[in-house]
Amino acid sequence: MGILAGRKAVITGGGSGIGFEIATRFLNEGADIIISGRTEERLISAVKKLPGDAERKKYYKADIGDEKSVKDLFEYALDIWGGVDILINNAGAMRINKELTETSIVEWNSVINTNINGVFLCSREAAVMMKKQKYGKIINISSMSGEIVNKYFNPGAYEVSKSALRMMTKVFAVELAEYGVAVNAIAPGYYDTKPNRDFFINNMELKSKIMDLIPKKKLGDLNELGRLAVFLSSDGVDYLTGQTIVIDGGYTIW
Predict the structure, then answer these.
(1) Does the pLDDT at position 17 exceed 70?
(2) CA distances from 52 to 47, 100, 140, 233 (A)
(3) Mean pLDDT score of the chain, rounded to an integer?
(4) 27 in helix, strand or coil?
(5) How much is the pLDDT for 222?
(6) Other beta carbons less than 10 A from residue 170's beta carbon
(7) Could you report the per-residue pLDDT of 192-246, keeping only the tens digit for each?
(8) 59 is catalytic
(9) Cβ-count burial of 56 within 10 angstroms (0-12 exposed, 13-18 middle, 19+ buried)?
(10) Cβ neighbours of residue 222 under 8 Å, at least 6 residues apart?
(11) pLDDT reading at 162 higher than 70
(12) What confidence category does residue 1 fall into, taking pLDDT thresholds of 50, 70 and 90?
């Protein structure tokens, strides 16, 4: 059935974009999945569109910034599967795009709570199961914005949160290594997602400036992110842990 046959995966933010692409790839490679998110209607629609038999694709409404909601999500996975083999921490808050001096504490916390606390809570709950079974893969979807300050945008809580995610990846990797659990991160650059397409349609001059900074001169293909997530989740990748793989068309070379 594929290189992930029989594996059980939780994918946060799986109702659209990168999460939906990874969910599709995982199902095609034989994994069973639960996609989670805050909007039930989007999850229901996504499950209908995803390939595979109904029993192999489930959804669970959850807010990763809320501890009880996260616990309930993983209790659900435990009830139907008995454990979790793969966690894709994809859900995240978007950029506020304000100067730090103009950012309220409410706006700051909304990003930090999702992008740092949410990933921590999901990873913690998954790690407890993975330690017991002596196996697991945790993949954090970060951003090249954790490596640099993006030109033409106001840096702020988003960059800070993604930078912290790089270190969280390393810390969990160290703590879980002896239990056979690998923890890595993927840091995409500008990809061909609906939010990016919509933004650039209304900001063509800015798109041109950004393309000049990308050696590949194009937006990334979500299929490539999906293939990378499958690779990192496969049994053939064991020695790689604690790493953040930047996949940005060369943007951060400059």
Answers:
(1) yes
(2) 10, 45, 25, 19
(3) 96
(4) helix
(5) 95
(6) 17
(7) 988 888 889 989 999 999 999 999 999 999 999 999 999 999 999 999 999 999 9
(8) no
(9) middle
(10) 17, 18, 21, 191, 192, 193
(11) yes
(12) low
b vs e for 16-38, b when ≥16 Cβ sit within 10 Å of the residue's Cβ?
Answer: bbbbbbbbbbbbbbebbbbbbbb
Task: For residue 31, give the amino acid letter.
Answer: A
Beta-strand runs (E) in 152-242: 181-188
The number of residues in the chain equals: 254
Nearest alpha carbon to residue 237 among 27, 9, 2, 3: 3
Question: Which residue is listed with tokens 């106001």?
Answer: 154
User: What are the two backbone dihedrals, phi and then psi, of residue 199, each rounded to the nearest 5 degrees?
Assistant: -65, -45
Are residues 252 and 148 in contact, defined by beta-carbon separation less than 8 angstroms?
Answer: yes
For the entire predicted model, the pTM comes to 0.96
Q: Which of 59, 158, 190, 251 is catalytic?
A: 158
